[in-house]
Structures are given as C-alpha cells and as structure tokens.
Amino acid sequence: MGFFDKLKEGLGKTKSSFDEKLNSAFSAFRKVDEELLEELEEILITSDIGLDTSVNIISNLRTRIKKENIKEAEEVKQALREEMEEILNIDNTMNLQTKPSVILVVGVNGVGKTTSIGKIANRLKKDGKKIVIAAADTFRAAAVEQLEIWSKRAGCDIVKKEEGTDPASVVYEAIKITKETNADVLICDTAGRLHNKKYLMDELEKINRVINKELPEASKEVLLVLDATTGQNAISQVKAFSETTEVTGLVLTKLDGTAKGGAVFGIVNENKIPVKFIGVGEQIDDMEKFDAKEFIKAIL
Ligand code: GDP
Ligand code: MG
Q: Mutation test of ligand 1: which of 139, 253, 275, 288 has the most ligand atoms closer than 8 Å to its C-beta?
C-alpha cells in the first residue's frame, strides 16, 4: 500500500464521520443561509477542529459566499474544502541550507520522536545527504539502543554515550564528529519527560546553547513531534515547548490510527507553526512531507 492509501485508510474514521455529518447537513439543503453556516460550524467543532479555528473557517467561508455569490450546495462544499486547506497551507520547506545543518527533535515521551528520526534520516540519506544522529536521550539505555537500531536501518552514523550522561555533552561530541566527517545534517534525539518539566526544559536550553555556540551559522530546525491520537491536547504541548525553544515545525505521528485527524487544523491555526512531516505507521517508509492538499483529500 502506498503512502497516500495508508493516509486515506488511517484517516478513514475521521473522514466517514465528517462525511456523514456534512451529508446530513446538506440533505435538507434549500439555500445558503445563516442556518446552514451555523450547522457547518457545529460540524467542525464536533470534529475536533477546535472552537476558535472552526469559527475562523466559517467566518472566511461566509465572506467568500457573499463575495462569490455562491448558491449551490456543491459550491459551498468546495469553498469549505478550500478554506480548510488554507488553514494548513503554511510554507513547510525544511530549512537545511547550510552544511552542516541541525535538526533538533523534541516532544513528550512516546509520541514517536525516535521512530520519526529514523524515518527522516532515511529520507535525507536517500536524497544523498550524509547524516549523523546524536543519542541525546540518555535517560534510559533502551532509548539509545532503539535509536541505534533505527540508525542502522537508515544507514547513518550515531554518536552515543553511556546512560545518564549529560545530553548536551552528547550533542557537543556529535557536532564535533559532524564537522570531522563533513556530514550534511546532524539530527538530535532528546528525552521527553514532561512530568519533570523544569528539568526537561533546562536540558533543552543547554542543548540549544551548545548548538548555537558550536554551529552559530548553521540552519536549524526544531521539530516538535506530536501524537495525532491525542487530539486537542497536543496544543498544550506546543505551548509548553515553545516557551523554551523556537519550534520551527511539527511532525504529526500515528495518523494511521486516529479518529481525531480534525485536531490538526486547531493545532496549526492556533500556533501558526507548519506541519513538516506526517507519520502513518511504524515502518521506515511510513513518513512523508506534509501536503495540505493531500491531507484535505484524505479527510473530506
Ligand atoms: P519517543 O518516546 O517519542 O521516542 O517515541 P518512539 O519513537 O519510541 O515511539 C513510541 C511508539 O509509537 C513506538 O511503539 C512506535 O512504533 C510508535 N509509533 C511511532 N510513530 C508511529 C506512527 O506513525 N504510527 C504508528 N502506528 N505508530 C507509531
Ligand atoms: Mg525516544
């Protein structure tokens, strides 16, 4: 099964509930009026899209209906699709201009950071880039072992130290090796113990300082990984991490098994941070660059 089919299947639950509600709203369609718009707004809200974002989309739709004098049900549906796509349509190219560039991967435990690093490293490797991976989640030995398996799969070098080592020192060492081996991209894994938030954020700050000091000119991406099955809760994770570090992109994982695909709209709209990659499974190829148009196609 190809990536888009997996995405479509993964978002199947979101799509069918959405379709059902839309069909019922349009079944008694007579004309485009405020009642219909309210009904559509209600549908968005009950599809995990979030209150503010739903109001936003419908308000844009209302303006558009007036401006374009829309009268047909099909036209309303198409305009709704386009307005929803607009929310997700933020420039999401990866900024990896310099050699080397750095990708720092952050997020709470279990969201799929390590897995996503394996997938992203594999993609970049296929693009002909030389990758070094830093095992800066030193909290558990198992985390390093897991990352090692992924780096082997992707065919990339890994820099690791023993359990409990200061994560910033692993990053320091990895930067050294990145420079020595003339690698293109350094990808850093990190720990995600949000229950010990202060400690975690201090750790991230220290890692950031090392990167900024050792590679001041380097392009830097900070990718926040979010588990799509957590829906709206992901918004609070974006807020928590944004306090410490400038998140440049989101990675949404586990879109293969969620009925909460609608949450993506609220997550993006409320933070204005683009989704850069999406994950639809546990295999190395189950990750693609995010494409708003494709996503809308799979969900509506
Ligand atoms: P981390 O704690 O953030 O590093 O998360 P891991 O990378 O260890 O992933 C946690 C679990 O989520 C593992 O069992 C992964 O196989 C699984 N996982 C990660 N990404 C996806 C995805 O896109 N789809 C599915 N179904 N599972 C995923
Ligand atoms: Mg991990």
A: 253
Q: Tell me the CA–centroid distance for residue 62 and ligand 1, in Å.
A: 40
Q: Check if 52 has its Cβ closer than 6 Å to any atom of ligand 1.
A: no
What's the pLDDT tens digit per position in 138-154?
998 999 999 999 999 99
- Between the CA of residue 13 and those of 10, 18, 36, 54, 207, what are the distances in Å? 7, 8, 24, 19, 39
Q: Is 183 helix (H, G, I), strand (E, B) or coil?
A: coil
- The helix or strand, by DSSP H or E, that contains position 107, with its residue range, turns out to be none
Q: How far is the CA of 113 from the centre of ligand 2 (A)?
A: 5
Nearest one of 194, 155, 198, 190 to 174, comparing CA atoms: 190
pTM over 0.85: yes
SS3 29: coil
Residue range 87-114: mean pLDDT, rounded: 97
